């Protein structure tokens, strides 16, 4: 690329983000998991059992959409619903052993994909990029 053809910082960032999304979709395909399902599994792994409403809040989606996500995961045996012992009207959602196994496998596949992308950077560049992204995220 010629020097005057350098993309803007924003364009470069989005190009890398598109690469990450593409690699992520590829990494998720063996488990037939979509990004919404993955995010729900990750929330449940961090918070154990949560009310459906709280899951929706964590995912920043409507409760009805959270129900659809949980329905998809439950049909595959990755999560289960159970009554909340503190409030019989409420339902808790939690990972099953299979859900934990699938999530661990997905994390491994995604780590491998990230290593392929970020492995082109030196250790110092990786550390600097992590610091910069952390600053932007926070």
Commentary on this structure:
This protein is of the alpha+beta class. It has a single domain, classed as Winged helix-like DNA-binding domain superfamily/Winged helix DNA-binding domain (Arc Repressor Mutant, subunit A, Orthogonal Bundle). The protein contains six helices and three strands; from the N terminus they run ααβααββαα. Strands 1-3-2 form a three-stranded antiparallel sheet. Strand 2 and strand 3 (87-95) form a beta hairpin. Helix 1 packs across helix 5. The longest helix has 22 residues, at 97-118. The radius of gyration is 19 Å and the shape is elongated. The relative contact order is 0.12.
Blueprint of the fold:
Elements lengths: L8 H20 L6 H13 L2 E2 H8 L3 H13 L3 E6 L2 E9 L1 H22 L4 H15 L1
Antiparallel strand pairs: 1-3, 2-3
Helix pairs in contact: 1-5, 3-4
Q: What count of structural domains?
A: 1
What is the CATH architecture descriptor?
A: Orthogonal Bundle
Show unreliable segments.
Answer: none
| Backbone structural class | alpha+beta
* Radius of gyration over C-alpha positions, nearest whole angstrom: 19 Å
Q: Distance between the terminal alpha carbons, to the nearest Å?
A: 32 Å
Shape: elongated
List the quaternary state of the chains. single chain
Q: Characterize the largest beta sheet: strand count, sense, and whether it forms a barrel.
A: 3 strands, antiparallel
In short:
This protein is an alpha+beta fold. It has a single domain (24-137), classed as Arc Repressor Mutant, subunit A, CATH 1.10.10.
């Amino acid at each position: 690329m010629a020097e005057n053809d350098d993309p803007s910082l924003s364009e470069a960032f989005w190009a890398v983000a598109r690469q990450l999304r593409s690699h992520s979709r590829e990494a998720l395909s063996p488990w037939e998991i979509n990004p919404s399902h993955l995010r729900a599994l990750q929330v449940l792994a961090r918070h154990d059992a949560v009310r459906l409403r709280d899951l929706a809040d964590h995912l920043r989606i409507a409760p009805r959409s959270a129900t659809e996500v949980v329905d998809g995961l439950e049909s595959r045996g990755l999560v289960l619903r159970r009554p909340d012992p503190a409030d019989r009207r409420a339902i808790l959602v939690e990972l099953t052993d299979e859900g934990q196994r699938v999530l661990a496998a997905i994390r491994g596949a995604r780590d491998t994909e990230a290593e392929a992308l970020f492995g082109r950077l030196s250790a110092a560049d990786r550390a600097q990029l992590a610091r910069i992204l952390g600053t932007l995220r926070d």
